[in-house]
Amino acid sequence: MTTGPAASGTPAHAVGALAKEGLGSVLTAIVTPFDDALEVDEEAFVRLMHHLAGHGSDGFVVCGTTGEASTLTDDEHLRLIELAVQERPAGTTIIAGTGSNNTRHAVEMTERATELGVDATLSVTPYYNKPNPRGLVAHYSEIARATDKPIILYNIPARVVIDVPNDLLAELAQIDHIDYVKQANNANLAQVDGLGLYAGNDDAFLGVLELGGCGGILVASHLVGDEMKRMVNEPENRAAIDASLRDVYQAMGVTTNPIPVKAALELAGLPVGGLRLPLVPASPEERAQISEVLARHQLLSSIRPDNG
């Protein structure tokens, strides 16, 4: 099978060059902009994607948790993937969220995303059903047969029912095309034989880089992508940069993602519209917390898409 770009024992300073040969180091889990009627705003999506590419992002996870995939129709979901592939900024990668708790649906979405020309897919652990380890192996084996592109496993026990331990991840890595893991359980943060490691939480990005991992699938990179890219390119400075960004990470977690990042983008001058129920806009108190952090970083109303 194809292994991830950062195998065990890879020096941390080498991660940037290795990850560039794969999917990239700073992968932004891009929000889905909506218009006033809460319909997908395609122009705003393309504008945001190009802005982020100019500010540190090596690629984009489209229609993931941050992209509110759970409230998109399949037609909207696939259209966003198609749009991202068609309008991708030069040199960036497109990873499509195609996971589901319904194996047949995950297979179909993975097949369609592959046909649309993505570079990889992100497949979340099945939620609610609570499959046992044999069920997870069967689930991912079916998905892997639906594509010839890399699959990123997504372990996020905070949003699903189960945690996938590292020994089971190593077993799943033996399946062809399962090449990476987005690890959103910081307690499990470790290199797994056969899988390239991506941070699933912004506050784990430094740890993954220091482990020699691939990078992160990030949210704060909507706002501080240039600084997060510096963490990849300047190993000697990454701890200090990370320390300076901790308040931004915390602000992006004042309430359920993507509520804070959509509020932050509006406050920073790049509005992306509202949220579909059951998500609701940030409260005045939450906006005040986010605004205070953005002001500290001189980000209030500072982002202009016309500036790149």
Could you walk me through the main structural features you see in this protein, from its secondary elements to its overall organization?
By secondary structure, this protein is an alpha/beta fold. Helix content is 39%, strand content 12%. It has helices spanning 15-20, 42-53, 74-86, 103-116, 133-144, 166-172, 205-210, 221-233, 238-251, 259-267, 284-296; strands at 26-29, 59-62, 93-97, 120-124, 151-155, 178-183, 196-199, 215-218. Strands 1-2-3-4-5-6-7-8 form an eight-stranded parallel β-barrel, surrounded by four helices. Helix 2 (42-53) links the parallel strand 1 (26-29) and strand 2. It is globular, with a radius of gyration of 18 Å. 49% of the residues are buried. The model is unreliable at 1-20 (pLDDT under 50).
Q: In a few lines, what is going on in this structure?
A:
The protein has 308 residues and is of the alpha/beta class. It is 39% helix and 12% strand.
Main structural class? alpha/beta
Approximately what portion of the residues adopt beta-strand conformation? 5-15%
Q: What distance separates the N and C termini?
A: 39 Å
- Taken from the alpha-carbon principal axes, the silhouette is globular
Mean pLDDT: 92
Low-confidence segments, ≥5 residues, pLDDT <50?
Answer: 1-20
- What's the story with the biggest beta sheet? 8 strands, parallel, barrel
Query: Strand order, biggest sheet?
Result: 1-2-3-4-5-6-7-8
Order of helices and strands: HEHEHEHEHEHEEHEHHHH
Count of separate DSSP helical elements: 11
